[in-house]
Design brief:
- The protein has a single domain, classed as outer membrane lipoprotein receptor (LolB), chain A (Clam), CATH 2.50.20.
- It is an alpha+beta fold and 288 residues long.
- The strands form 2 sheets. Strands 3, 4, 5, 6, 7, 8, 9, 10, 11, 12, 13, 14 and 15 form a 13-stranded mixed β-sheet that branches. Strands 1-2 form a two-stranded antiparallel sheet.
- It starts with a helix and ends with a helix.
- 28% of the residues lie in helices and 29% in strands.
- The longest helix is centred in the first third of the chain and has 19 residues.
């Protein structure tokens, strides 16, 4: 399948973080964190919810608020579909910036930097212009891209090799617009998308007994099918923050973990001397 290598793998990897929740419109405000104590049956009569459901809905809302309000968080996504295995590990901040590494499983590995609103020149943590996105591929990744381009046609191979020769060891600045920087920006907001879904669609979530994974006590939550299903694990001791969420959607198996809540994090500033602009026909150039 043809795809835009310049942004495709990163979009796939981070979008996977939201695979277990259906996208919803951002909430204008967070609802109260207390879950309703009853539901309405088909006959119109009120029915008391099971205790594990009342607690599950409340905890999912709380975890969503913690994720939404975090200054920063580290997200690691592991996506499997058939023989495909995509991995990403990125740091996200509440301004919408992110930085990290992606691996598409086919030899294409890149470091990615996304600046919401462009570079921060006044030190307030927010950009001062248009969104900017940069990708720095490993030498092995560029070689893999060249091989794929050559397989498409000798002409495509020559065009790609001419560009990768300039891009080797440098950051490629993604083109602006919905197929470039904006697309990457949406994926950097995947944590906020999850938080929105958790606070707005907790109905039907149920708790299971506490388990211990990697030495940490966690509360498993069985997520409602209306939100895509799957299982979330919250920290059992202390604040009920989301530790991980996993599920299957459309044959895609996704596991996402969240760590390093509120740890100091700043997106690195890219030296202009280390940047090459994506060509005007970058979409076609990297469709390999």
């Amino acid at each position: 399948m043809r795809r835009q290598v310049i942004i495709g793998v990163f979009v796939v990897a981070l979008a996977a973080g939201g695979a277990v929740f259906r996208p919803v419109e951002p909430a204008t405000e967070v609802r109260a964190l207390t879950a309703p104590a009853a539901s309405v049956s088909d006959t119109g009569t009120a029915e008391a919810k099971p205790a594990d459901q009342v607690r599950g809905e409340r905890l999912l809302r709380q975890a969503g608020v913690w994720l939404r309000d975090a200054y920063s968080v580290r997200m690691a996504a592991d996506v499997r579909q058939g023989t495909k295995h995509v991995r990403a590990e990125v740091r996200l901040d509440h301004h919408g910036n992110c930085s990290g590494t992606i691996d598409d499983g086919d030899g294409v590995v890149a470091h990615v930097v996304y600046l919401k609103g462009g570079a921060d020149t006044d030190g307030d943590g927010e950009g001062d212009g248009k969104d900017e996105a940069y990708l720095k591929y490993t030498d092995a990744a560029l070689a893999a891209i060249e091989v794929k381009a050559e397989a498409m046609s000798p002409e495509m191979g020559a065009r790609v090799r001419a560009f990768t020769a300039r891009a080797r060891g440098k950051y490629i600045k993604a083109p602006s617009g919905p197929k470039g920087a904006q697309a990457l920006g949406k994926q950097c907001g995947v944590g906020q998308m999850l938080a929105t879904a958790m606070t707005r669609r907790p109905e039907g979530t149920r708790t299971l007994p506490v388990v211990t994974r990697d030495g940490e006590r966690l509360i498993p939550l069985v997520l409602p099918s209306a939100s895509g299903g799957g299982t979330a694990y919250l920290v059992a001791d202390g604040d009920p923050r989301l530790r991980s969420v996993s599920g299957t959607s459309g044959g895609m198996r996704t596991a996402v973990t969240f760590t390093d809540y509120d740890k100091p994090f700043s997106v690195p500033r890219i030296d202009p001397a280390q940047v090459v602009e994506a060509p005007a026909n970058g979409g076609a150039l990297f469709e390999v």
